[in-house]
Amino acid sequence: MRIETALLGNKLQKKPIIWTISGADCSGGAGIAADIKTGHNLNVEVCHLITANTVQNSSELIAVNPTQVEILALQVQALRFDKPPAVIKIGLIANREQINWLIDMLSEIKSQLPNLLVVYDPVGRASVGGCLSSLPNSVLAPLMPLVDVITPNFIEAKQLCTLTTTSSVNDTRFMAEKILRLGCKAVIIKGGHNATEKPNDNNTHCTDVCLQSLSPTSSQLFTLQSPKINTSYSHGSGCSFASALASFLAHNYLLRDAFTLTKAFINQGLLLATEVKNDISDDMRDDKNEVDRNRYYGAFEQGFWPSKPNNFPIIINPLNQKLQSTKCFEPLDLSEGEKLGLYPVIDSLAWLALLLPLNLNIIQLRIKGNNIIEVEPMIEQAVAMARDYNCRLFINDHWQLAIKYGAYGVHIGQEDLNGADLNAIAKAGLRLGISTHGCYEFLLAKQLQPSYLAVGAIFPTKTKNMTGQIQGLENLTQILALADTTPVVAIGGINQQRLDKVWNTGVSAVAVVTAITEAQQPVTATKTMQARLC
Ligand SMILES: Cc1ncc(COP(=O)(O)OP(=O)(O)O)c(N)n1
Ligand SMILES: Cc1ncsc1CCOP(=O)(O)O
Ligand SMILES: [Mg+2]
C-alpha cells in the first residue's frame, strides 16, 4: 500500500517533527501507538509525551494511570531545543494538574515558536467503553485559545457545547460555531458517531465539518462527505485522525487541504482494516471467554499517504447546488490522448497577434483592467482574431463579455466562482477553466465538471501574489492522481528550466506568462517551449 516515492518527492526529504501529548493504550490500537504509526506513515517524526499509562484491551478500559506533570515538564525541557515541534497534537489529558501544566507550557512555547500549531483531540470516553477523562468545560476553557484545531467527534462536540438534545447535520454548524466561541481557531466535528445525520436518510454517509475562524466576525466552512464505512475495526481512528491532521499541517498544508487528506487517510484505513483473530489455544482459554473465541482483536489499520481517488471525500458546497445544469461544460475537443501543450497567458492584442501564427492549441487573454469601454472592444477583436487561426482562446475573468462575443472558453478564479453565472456559461456552450490551489479546491471544482482545471502556483512567481499557495511538484502530482479525465493545466513560476519537470508529471498544459513576455526573443522562446511539450 506504500505510495510511489515519486508522489511524495520533497516530502520524503523533509521530515517535520510533531509532538504528541497523549495516553498510551497497552492494547496498541489508539493513543500514542496510533499517533506514532500515523506519523511514521505520513513521514513526520513523532516525539511522544505520555500523559497516562492506560490499562485496556479490546473489550474494556480497566485503569488510567496519569503521569506526574514533573515528568512531562522534564520531557518538554529535553525536547524543546533538540526537537522543536512544527505541530503539537494533544490527546488524553488525564487530570486537572495536567491541564494547568499544558496551559502554561503551551503559552510559553507558542510565544517562542510563533508558527507552532496545536491540534487537540478531546478524548473523553474510550471506544471500548469507560471514561478516560472527565474534565468539565470550565477547566478546559483556558486551554481553548491556545488550540488551533480541535477535533471532537459528534458526541464530544455535543459535550463541548453542553448540548443534550440529538442534533441533525444541519445543527453541526451551530455546534461548530459554539465551539469556536470557546476561543480555538478552528473546529473539525467528525460525523462518524452522528447517527442522526439527515440528508442521506439511511445514515449511509459520514459528514465531517470544519469551521475555521478568519477574523473575530467571520469564519469559513468546509464540509466533507464520504460513504459510511461500517467496520468494527475503528479503534484508534479518532487519534489517527488528529495525528494525521497534525502531520499534514506539519507538512505545511493549509487547513482545508490537511482536512481533505486526513479524511482520505481515515477512509483508506477503515477500508483496509481486516479482522485479526484472537489466536488463543484451547488449553489457555478461559471458559468465560468461550464466546470470544473468534472475536475481533484488531484496530484501525494505518495506510500510507492517500492517493486513490475513491478514498477522497465529496466536497459539500453551495456551488454544487447552484449549478442546475446536469450537462457538464463543453470539453476541449481534444482527440484521445492529445494534450494542450504550451498555454501562453497574455494581456494585449499585440501579444495575441504575435503568438497566433505559432499554431498553439490554446491561448488566454488576461486583461486586468475593469474599464468596460477599453476591455469590451479588445475581447471582441481577440475572439475574431483567434477564430481566424482556429486557436482555443480563453478569456480570463470577463465571463459576460466572453459569452457575448462567443469566445471558445472562459477562465474563472476562485474569487470569481461564486459571482459567475455558471449556468449561463454552460448554456452558451463556452468551455470553462477554473483555478485551484490545493486538493480541496481541486475536488470541489472538479465536481462542477469543467473543461479543464488549473493548479497553481507550482513555483513562486512575481506575476501574481500567491503567498501561501505554492504547490510544488509534489502537490501537483498528488492532485493529478485525482483528476480522472479532466485535463490539468499547471501555472506559476514555470520557465524553460522547470518546463520538463512540470511536463513529466503528466499535465495536459503548461501555462506561462513571463517565460514568454519577459523573454529576450518571445517568439523563439515560445517555439522552443512548445516543441518540448509534444
Ligand atoms: C491557466 C490559468 N490558471 C490560473 C489562472 C489564474 O486565474 P485567477 O485565479 O482567476 O487569477 P487571475 O489570473 O485572474 O489573476 C489563470 N489566469 N490561468
Ligand atoms: C495568473 C497566475 N495564476 C497563478 S500563478 C499566475 C502567474 C503566472 O505567471 P508566471 O508564468 O510569470 O509565473
Ligand atoms: Mg481571474
From TrEMBL:
Family annotation (InterPro entries): Aldolase_TIM, HMP/HMP-P_kinase_dom, PM/HMP-P_kinase-1, Ribokinase-like, ThiamineP_synth_sf, ThiamineP_synth_TenI, TMP_synthase
Keywords: ATP-binding, Kinase, Magnesium, Metal-binding, Multifunctional enzyme, Nucleotide-binding, Thiamine biosynthesis, Transferase
Any Pfam family the entry gives: TMP-TENI
GO molecular function terms listed in the Swiss-Prot or TrEMBL record: ATP binding; hydroxymethylpyrimidine kinase activity; metal ion binding; phosphomethylpyrimidine kinase activity; thiamine-phosphate diphosphorylase activity
Reaction equations catalysed: 2-[(2R,5Z)-2-carboxy-4-methylthiazol-5(2H)-ylidene]ethyl phosphate + 4-amino-2-methyl-5-(diphosphooxymethyl)pyrimidine + 2 H(+) = thiamine phosphate + CO2 + diphosphate; 4-methyl-5-(2-phosphooxyethyl)-thiazole + 4-amino-2-methyl-5-(diphosphooxymethyl)pyrimidine + H(+) = thiamine phosphate + diphosphate; 2-(2-carboxy-4-methylthiazol-5-yl)ethyl phosphate + 4-amino-2-methyl-5-(diphosphooxymethyl)pyrimidine + 2 H(+) = thiamine phosphate + CO2 + diphosphate
Species per Swiss-Prot/TrEMBL record: Cognaticolwellia beringensis
Pathway annotation: Cofactor biosynthesis; thiamine diphosphate biosynthesis; thiamine phosphate from 4-amino-2-methyl-5-diphosphomethylpyrimidine and 4-methyl-5-(2-phosphoethyl)-thiazole: step 1/1
Alphabetical list of NCBIfam families matching this protein: PRK03512.1, thiE
Cofactor: Mg(2+)
One BP annotation, GO: thiamine biosynthetic process
Ranges of residues in domain Pyridoxamine kinase/Phosphomethylpyrimidine kinase: 25-275
Domain Thiamine phosphate synthase/TenI as annotated: residue spans: 348-516
Entry superkingdom: Bacteria
Protein name: Thiamine phosphate synthase
A GO-annotated cellular component: cytosol
